[in-house]
């Protein structure tokens, strides 16, 4: 891969992981409700789970969809249902004092598994493989995944820290409840391109 193509890949990966989407909104909400340290497994699940998914997509998972086209509809239904459930969980999250005993952030495995039903993750994986590993050879796919690991760690850390910083401004239960409802509504809004594509 040439330096110019690698630079383009880094820019593409950074823009796609740093922009708002289900992962980032959930990390910000988790940082607000549970703090940075308790959100680390969730961060790692996103930062490593997506590149693992990208490798699987690049090395042939998409052929399954070609062989059985109804799988696209199944993926869409499961994605929408899971995102709606997560939005409900965020909207009803306990205040930070109660969260220590009542609630818990996503685990590493839950965040990793979420990538497979995250519509933005699928769009990112397909675009990245098509644009930067078109031959789908192992080395090219691994390089794309490696760039996403680096960019993903910056993004997950930034969004979680943003959430943690917002925690100070959301000390009152009413403000925190409003924040959680806004985060839930934004998470549901990320489904608009999935349900009504342009």
Explain this structure to me?
The chain is mostly helical and 198 residues long. The chain has one domain (3-192). It contains ten helices and no strands. Helix 1 (3-18) runs parallel beside helix 8 and helix 2 (22-34) packs across helix 8 (138-169). It is globular and about 55 Å long. The two termini are 33 Å apart. The mean pLDDT is 86.
Question: What are its keywords?
Answer:
about 200 residues; mainly alpha; 10 helices; globular
Beta-strand portion reads: under 5%
Q: Percent range for helical residues?
A: over 70%
The major β-sheet equals: none
Number of DSSP-assigned strands: 0
* Poorly predicted regions: none
Rg, alpha carbons: 17 Å
Helix and strand pattern: HHHHHHHHHH
Shape: globular
Through-space gap between termini: 33 Å
Q: Into how many domains do the coordinates divide? A: 1
Number of helices: 10
Average residue pLDDT: 86
Secondary-structure content class = mainly alpha
């Amino acid at each position: 891969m040439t330096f110019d193509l690698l630079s383009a890949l880094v820019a593409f990966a950074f823009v796609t992981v740093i922009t708002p989407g289900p992962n980032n909104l959930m990390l910000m909400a988790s940082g607000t409700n549970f703090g940075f340290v308790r959100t680390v497994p969730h961060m790692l699940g996103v930062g490593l789970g997506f590149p693992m998914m990208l490798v699987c997509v690049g090395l042939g998972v998409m052929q399954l969809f070609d062989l059985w086209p109804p799988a696209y509809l199944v993926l869409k239904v499961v994605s929408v249902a899971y995102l709606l459930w997560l939005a409900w969980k965020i909207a009803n999250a306990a205040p930070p004092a109660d969260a220590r005993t009542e609630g818990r952030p996503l685990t590493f495995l839950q965040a990793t598994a979420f990538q497979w039903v995250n519509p933005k993750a699928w769009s990112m994986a397909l675009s990245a493989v098509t644009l930067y590993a078109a031959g789908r050879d192992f080395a090219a796919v691994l390089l794309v995944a490696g760039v996403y690991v680096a960019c993903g760690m910056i993004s997950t850390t930034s969004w979680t820290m943003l959430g943690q910083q917002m925690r100070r401004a959301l000390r009152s239960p009413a403000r925190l409840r409003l924040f959680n409802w806004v985060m839930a509504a934004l998470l549901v809004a990320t489904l608009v391109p999935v349900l009504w594509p342009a």
